[in-house]
Amino acid sequence: MVTTEEVDTTRQYEIPEGVMLEFRLAGPLVRASAWAIDAAIRAVLYIVIGLSFSYFGGVGVAIILIALFLIEWFYPVLFEVKSGATPGKKAMGIWVIHDNGTPVTVSASVIRNLLRAVDFMPLMYGFGLLSMLFNREFKRLGDLAAGTLVVYRDNYEKRSELPSRSAVRPGVELTESEQQAVLAFAERAPGLSSERRVELAEILSEISGRKGERAVDGIYGYANWLMKGR
Amino acid sequence: MDLSRITINLRPRTPWEGADLGFALARSEFLRLWLLWLASALPLYLVVAMLFFSEPMLVALLTWWFKPLYEPPLLFWLSRRIFGERLGFSEMRQHWWRVVRPQLFANLTWRRFGTARSFNMPVALLEGLKGSERRERISVLGRGQHVTGWLTFFGINFEILLELSFLVFLVMLIPSELNWLEMDSLVTSGGGIELWLQHIGNLLAMSLIAPFYVAGGFAIYLTRRSELEGWDIEIGFKRLAERVEGKHPSSSLVAGLLLMTVGFVLPGEPPIAAGLPDRDAVQQSIQEVLKDDVFGKREMRDSWEYVGDTDESAEDVPWLLQWLIDLFEGYTRGMATVGEFLLWLGAGLIIAFLLYRVSRMRDWPNLNKLPGLRRRQPLPVTLSGLDIRAESLPEDLVRQAEILLLAGEARAALSLLYRGALSVLVFRFRLQINIGATEGECLLQVESSQDFSSAAFFRRLTAAWQGMAYGHRLPSTGELEALCQDWDRVFGE
To answer: Residue B198 above 80 pLDDT?
Structure first.
């Protein structure tokens, strides 16, 4: 039996201008890690507040309770509205956005965080976990209600230097994905074993007309042409 | 291994994203994986449960320990699945022992404590490596793959959380009055139904997480190998080569379909050389796109609008009726004219009446001169308990006072002088003094008045009066005589 469905964890959204945006959805594992970090931060906060105000008698208890309430409900809202991610999420490289890719607003953030109470039921995010596991976009119930996504933040790392060769124009026109494959090869080939490098390069022998290490050099040339040749 | 047939998107990923890919894979095939896991695990669970029925925790621990028995079939099935092949149950039964047996003893003993089980399993099972080879391979592959440990850590937590959620959820749903379930007995494993529920919770939680755990580890493994060996590059290059060599997607249907999802380019059809599409077809598709509500839509709405007078009656109305209409129209018009006239007349009369009233207003000429007119108040009749009406005073006030003074009635004389002074101030000088004003307020009013110049005398008089009335201090006779003479000078006519 042959299946044709390609599995991936991205979600695409076409903006009115016709540009296709692609979001890399964050799954239960990374979100649980982010939550654990946030929970640890909150726990430290509670301990500090609890210890420092416990000497003030009745007023101190009132302040502790109010602080507890505010932190428990609005800690995520504050950070999500400010920068899209709580410290835990920031540490895991994920953040919250709307379904259409825009930054999360106060109302959406408040909704998704108030509904934590539902996700938390019956115990320690039981419903939230089930919802995340079985939703196509890893959404918990709060995300469903607020129309938000938790996605990986694009980190624009410095691209590694290409092996410098004289630029060679490929014999055929390359589509965008093919250009990306050539560039990916040039960037990652130095880290591959030489046999594997040659094996990959020789797939394109028909185009480059070369074999062995010379084929590898040929593709480096293409990559240099793509990057700066034009 | 033919990578062109792979059905997962092998883009470069972080290990965390790799785990997500596994979760997505497990979700899309959840039912099959779940049943496959149960097929191995359920018999063992039942056997163990029969031995230790009253110890659900022990049963759970034992079943949990034997996980390496039920996980390899899932991995094996998934390894075929990613190349587009879904093995049937009977095939899996044939392969079962061959899949589970390798290194089973190690898996169930010392390796059971490892946290990277899901990640190491493919090395042993799919690459068939043993001993030092396996160790070396894992040390190379597993570099920087700490996510596998977190997968195990959170996997355990998810299982515990789901089992407890299941039990708490049941307790929440059943009204407490029924006393069917109690939280305490669920935890401490009391009677019959609680035991059953704990067993069911165990199985549900473990079976639910298992597919995600196995697939997650497998996907991290795939991501790592793809990164190390450039699988994504290989796929990209093979597609490029196929396109250039003009090969049609005879090698596999999957590759072609994959290309369609990635680039909308069929192999063997260079995108640049592709002919222009048919103009009519393009127009048609444009129209179809424009039909979408996003680009505006057409809708019908009814509303009333004034279109001006249309005199339709003139033509087809009989003359008699027309005459009647005109007559009636003339009649109503006449009535209206009369009404209008009456209205204007009424308005004129009202205005005339008002003008008359204004002209008859008292003090008309002094309107602007008098201070405090805007809050016109009735003139006071008594001030500080003294009657100040002109009628109550004698004609020749000073003379009367002197007579009283001679008669030894100094008190009455001073009183007469003071009353007289107030009366003159109020009625002759029109000084605005409030009803109920005290002597001091009267004095203030007099001193602030511009019309009355001899405030100094009034102050002297007031002081004498206050001293006598409230302090019982009679001024000397000479002083009283002086007051009488000055009164005549200031207030006399």
So the answer is: yes
Q: Look at chain A and report how many structural domains it folds into.
A: 2
- Mean pLDDT score of chain B, rounded to an integer? 82
pLDDT at residue B466 tops 80: yes
Q: What is the DSSP string of A143-176?
A: HHHHTEEEEEPPP-PPPPPPPP------SS---H
Predicted confidence at residue B316, as pLDDT, reads 67
Q: Write down all domains in chain B, each with its CATH number in brackets.
A: 3-229 (no CATH), 378-491 (1.20.120)
Cross-chain CB nearest to B9 (options A6, A32, A123) = A6
- Whether B21 shows a pLDDT value over 90: the answer reads yes
What angle do helix axes B15-28 and B147-173 make, rounded to 10 degrees?
40
Q: Give the domain range for residue A124.
A: 10-152
Closest-CA residue to B170 (of B200, B210, B192): B200
Amino acid B434: pLDDT: 76
Q: Tell whether A110 and A217 lie within a shared domain.
A: no
Question: What is the mean pLDDT of the segment spanning A162-178?
Answer: 84
Own/partner contacts of B188-192, CB < 8 Å, gap of 24 or more, are B189/B54, B189/B55, B189/B56, B189/B57
Token representation of residue B41: 């695990």
Query: Quick check: is A168 in a domain?
Result: no
DSSP secondary structure code for residue B294 in this structure = G
Amino acid at B60: A
Helix, strand or coil, per DSSP, at residue B471:
helix
Q: Please, how many CA atoms are within 13 Å of residue B165, restricted to the half-sphere of its CB?
A: 21
Q: Which residue has the higher pLDDT, A44 or B469?
A: A44
- Residue B387 phi, psi dihedral angles, 5° rounding: -80, 120
Question: For B231, which residue in chain A has the nearest alpha carbon?
Answer: A200
Q: Please report residues of B whose CB lies closer than 8 A to that of A7.
A: 7-9, 21, 24-25, 28, 82
DSSP-assigned states of every residue in B179-234: -S--HHHHHTT-SHHHHHHHHHHHHHHHHHHHHHHHHHHHHHHHHHHHHHHTHHHH
pLDDT in tens, B79-116: 999 988 888 888 898 888 988 888 888 888 889 988 99
The pLDDT of residue A58 is above 90? no
Residue B122 scores a pLDDT above 60? yes
Rounded-to-integer distance, Cα A72 and Cα A66, Å: 10
Q: Give the model's pLDDT for residue B130.
A: 86
Residue A148's pLDDT is what?
96
Picking from B237, B252, B254, B266 by the largest number of A CB atoms within 10 A of its own CB, the best residue to mutate is B237
Q: Within the 77-116 window of chain A, which residues sit less than 8 Å (CB to CB) from chain B? A: 92-93
Please give, rounded to a whole number of angstroms, the shortest distance from the CA of A209 to a CA of chain B.
12
Does residue A129 sit within a domain? yes
Question: Which of B3, B7, B20, B147 should we substitute to test contact with A (largest number of A Cβ atoms within 10 Å)?
Answer: B20
pTM of structure: 0.65
CB pairs under 8 A between A and B: 180
**Is the CB of A9 less than 8 angstroms away from the CB of B271?**
no
